[in-house]
Specification:
Chain A is mainly alpha-helical. Chain A has helices at 3-17, 20-25, 49-83, 97-110, 115-123, 125-146, 155-161, 166-188, 197-215, 218-221, 226-252, 273-297. Chain B is mostly helical. In chain B, 29% of the residues are buried. The chains are: A mainly alpha, B mainly alpha.
């Protein structure tokens, strides 16, 4: 069969001749669906019979070997674990003078009550900047791969997917504001307790996704489209880079910075940690929502 | 030996979880399930790393009442490292899923063997022309 025939068949499949919901209700999962078109000339078969036999026998022994391999791996790793310092023992080599330094001087130097926040957003802030860039790069890669997927955009299909039931809507109406406020609390409390930009941003992103599931993308499109997404994320990352460059430059040259550690325990304290948490939170929230949007409908 | 393993059982669980993820990766031909397996492996390594920061009888590294005595708090460093790991894992998962969507668009199947066969069939059909 020719490649053009295959293409035509794929295109007809794309055009929606195949009903996903029927396949699902018939107890089949969607990805297997094309196999139902048995009468179609294009069938999946190996190059020759011999190869088919080979594949069959290979498939018979393969799971056995895979399980054996994994069991061997568990054995070796357990041997290694037995050699590791015991879980929870204070004399493990991981708890050395680095940790002592961070715990004893961390609050005094960074102003953050949460030592982890002090470490990741002050001592090792460039590490976290790299992390944010990893997230941004991943989002960019996903956009490159999927953005042109449904260029024309099928609003009819979009509407069909987005028909949600009243239960979800009324629940979302109550929960979404709480989720987003809680996310903001987690971000703003990052230097005072468990939390920070990444977790809070993920919570806000989850709230936005829930809203999009319940009410569709139209209300969110008003304030979060691709242009605004790019602008906000770029501003957040640039602010992070410049603020941290400034802080490191001043710190290395023993200059006075305008960001003081302040009183530890107050909400507006810990110098740059709070604004950096906010920047990271914005990046994470926008990226989470962007991932959902791009996978759901091919654009943001 | 068994006593040692029992004492550091969290690490053992992490190791077994890692192997379970690896088995998922090997046993399933569905690309999506392979990604799930990879995520299980990610979680296992995160668990192992975080467990390294725990010290018996000490609290989380959040300074309480201004007491900066090392013997009161756990190790803050593994938590910071795991944060990096989680973010990287999320990013990698997103890129993998995007690539899977692209593969599905192209071949209309998620089965790795079928994709391979179709690709080879197409290559074989194209070659003589």
């Amino acid at each position: 069969m020719k490649k053009s025939d295959l293409r035509a068949w794929l295109r007809s499949w794309d055009a929606g001749e195949f009903d996903f919901t029927a396949a699902l209700s018939a107890g089949r999962s969607a990805p297997e669906a094309p196999a139902e078109n048995k009468d179609h000339p294009w069938k999946l078969e190996p190059i020759n019979r011999l190869e088919q036999g080979e594949i069959k026998s290979f498939r018979k022994i393969y799971p056995f070997f895979a399980v054996v391999l994994c069991c061997i791996m568990i054995g070796f790793l357990l041997l290694t674990v037995a050699k590791l310092p015991t879980y929870g023992s204070p004399d493990s080599p991981a708890h050395n003078e680095v940790m002592e330094r961070y715990v004893e001087k961390g609050m005094e130097e960074t102003g953050a009550v949460n030592v982890v926040a002090g470490v990741i957003l002050d001592y090792r802030a460039f590490d976290t900047l790299g992390e944010s860039h990893v997230l941004y790069t991943a989002a960019t890669a996903v956009f490159i791969l999927l953005l042109s997927l449904k260029g024309s955009g099928e609003p009819e299909q979009e509407k069909k997917i987005m028909q949600s039931d009243p239960l979800l809507k009324s629940t979302a109406r109550i929960i979404v504001p709480l989720v987003i406020v809680y996310g903001i609390y987690v971000i703003f409390n990052g230097h005072l307790g468990p939390g920070g930009g990444f977790s809070g941003g993920a919570v806000i992103g989850g709230g936005l996704i829930l809203y999009a599931i319940a009410f569709g993308f139209e209300p969110l499109d008003r304030f979060l489209n691709l242009k605004i997404y790019r602008m906000v994320v770029l501003c957040a990352l640039c602010f992070y880079s410049f603020a941290k460059c400034y802080s490191f430059f001043c710190g290395a040259n023993h200059l006075e910075t305008i960001f003081s550690p302040g009183t530890p325990g107050m909400i507006f304290s810990a110098g740059l940690i709070l604004p950096l948490n906010v920047a990271v939170g914005i990046v994470v929230a926008c990226t989470m929502y962007g991932f959902y949007s791009i996978f759901q409908r091919g654009r943001i | 030996m068994l006593q040692t393993l029992w004492n550091s059982r969290v690490n053992c669980i992490a190791v077994i979880l890692f192997a379970v993820g690896f088995a998922t990766l090997l046993l399933h031909r569905n690309l999506f399930k392979k990604i799930l397996g990879l995520n299980i492996m990610d979680t296992a390594s995160c668990l192992l790393l975080t467990s390294m920061g725990y010290i018996e009888g000490r609290t989380a590294p959040i300074i309480v009442d201004g007491v900066t005595d090392v013997t009161r708090y756990g190790n803050p460093l593994p938590a910071g490292l795991v944060l990096t790991g989680i973010v990287v894992s999320v990013s990698v998962t997103a890129v993998m899923l995007a690539l899977t969507v692209k593969l599905y668009e192209r071949y209309h199947t998620l089965d790795l063997d079928e994709i391979y066969m179709i690709a080879r069939q197409e290559a074989g059909k194209e070659a003589p022309q």
